[in-house]
Amino acid sequence: MDLIDSARDSIDMAAYVLTNWPVMKALSRAAGRGVKIRIYLDNGLIGQKAPSEPFLELIDNPDIAIGVKRRGAALMHLKSYQIDGRILRTGAANFSASGLKKQDNDLIIINDPEAAAEFRRRFETIFAGSEPLPAAAQDRRRSFFAPQG
Fold first, then answer.
1. Tens of pLDDT along 102-147?
2. CA distance 108 to 146
3. DSSP per residue, 21-76
4. Which of 7, 17, 51, 147 would bridge with 47, disulfide CB 3.0–4.6 Å?
5. What would the DSSP string read from start to end of 80-140?
6. What pLDDT band is residue 19 in, cutting at 50, 70 and 90?
7. Within a domain: 139
8. 18-22, 50-54, 145-149: which has the highest mean pLDDT?
């Protein structure tokens, strides 16, 4: 969480899975400091279980933009983010408790503006093609996470 807590300007995150409470809390703290946050999520887990309170904080925060992969789009399996156009965090670990603590995954942190810029260019493309979370839902807990078919 130290990387996310170090953000001053922006975080662009692509997350196949985003269930780790400390990661979500760090993102909320960053938004509270005025950091511009965009999160691109895979749609595969939507509708499978009730959201956690930290996730609800993210989707209810007007300062956090969240996009979801469109159905039928290419598999999105990223677990990466860039911070302030200078740091790229990537690897095989999902942003989940097991992915970050129990599984044998690699984690690569690159302090290089060119690497962060390359990720951001790709992120711009996938985020622009995403679907927004349903903003008009009366009850986000039920309507957004209801099974979709």
1. 656 678 999 999 999 999 999 999 999 998 875 433 345 444 555 4
2. 35
3. HHHHHHHHHHHHTT-EEEEEE-STTTTTSPPPHHHHHHHH-TTEEEEEPPTTSPP-
4. 147
5. EEEETTTEEEEES--BSHIIIIIS---EEEEE-HHHHHHHHHHHHHHHHTPEEP-TT-S-H
6. confident
7. no
8. 18-22
CB distance 40 to 127 below 8 Å: yes
- Which of the given ranges, 24-38, 57-71, 97-111, has the highest pLDDT on average? 24-38
Q: Which residue has the tokens 């960053």?
A: 30
3-state secondary structure of 9: coil
Tell me if 54 is assigned to some domain.
yes
Residue 148 falls inside a structural domain:
no
Domain count, the chain: 1
Question: In a 3-state reduction of DSSP, which class is residue 64?
Answer: strand
Q: What is the mean pLDDT of residues 54-64?
A: 89
Give the domain CATH number at 31.
3.30.870.10
Three-state secondary structure call for residue 53: helix
Domain of residue 126 covers 2-133
Angle, vertex CA 98, rays to CA 51 and CA 42, nearest 5: 50
